[in-house]
Design a protein that fits this description.
Length: 211
């Protein structure tokens, strides 16, 4: 662009470039960002195509970069599709029902042995997560889990202290639930009562909390 070209002339070029529609500053910035991403995507596919044994590591990195760039573009255009696909990943997916409020977090703990089940989940669980509650709803997703026998405990940790609170009689004062419909009577259920077999595919579970 020549020096001294007026602002009006520059705006006119932009309008012609985008079909005669004037762009706001924020829109122009978005167009520039998307243009850079698209150019990077094209370049990385070209680079990844030149793949030799000596350049295996470099080629693998370029292909990963391509996949990530593509995922960014897809998510930016259709975020709802990205979330829909996440639930179909192989793993154990648990929908938590009967949450009485949105205070605190939902703690989901996955055990692969009776050790520490179900109370000592911070120490003995093979995998665990704390999930924020949204509109009295929560979902836990354990992915990358090998085949095997497991048991789940879910706790509504309302005061976020990392444990299931009880009263002076030892009865729970926070919500809890177990896999396989196991129930607590005079004591917590055993690992075998709550156990389930996971075959490595996609397993959808529902656990209702008790208070």
């Amino acid at each position: 662009m020549a020096r001294g070209e007026s602002d009006a002339a520059r705006r006119a070029k932009k309008m012609r470039r985008f079909g005669g529609v004037p762009l706001r500053p924020a829109q122009a910035g978005l167009v520039r960002a998307l243009s850079k991403i698209m150019n990077g995507l094209i370049d990385c596919w070209k680079s990844a195509a030149v793949f030799t044994v000596k350049a295996a590591e470099k080629g693998a990195f370029m292909r990963i970069r391509c996949v990530l760039l593509f995922a960014v573009l897809v998510f930016a255009s259709h975020p709802e599709a990205a979330f829909a696909q996440s639930t179909s990943c192989p793993g154990i997916h648990i929908n938590i029902l009967n949450i009485r409020n949105s205070t605190g977090t939902i703690a989901c703990a996955l055990f692969d042995s009776p050790a520490g089940f179900p109370i000592e989940y911070l120490r003995y669980a093979t995998s665990m997560m704390a999930i924020e509650i949204r509109d009295a709803q929560a979902r836990c997703d354990f992915v990358g889990i090998p085949r095997g026998t497991y048991a789940l405990v879910v706790i509504h940790d309302e005061n976020r202290n990392g444990k299931l609170d009880t009263n002076w009689l030892g009865l729970p004062t926070e919500g809890y639930g177990f896999s396989s419909g196991a129930k607590a009577t005079l004591s917590a259920p055993s690992f075998s009562d709550a156990s389930l077999w996971y075959d490595g595919g996609t397993l959808e579970l529902t656990i209702s909390l008790h208070y």
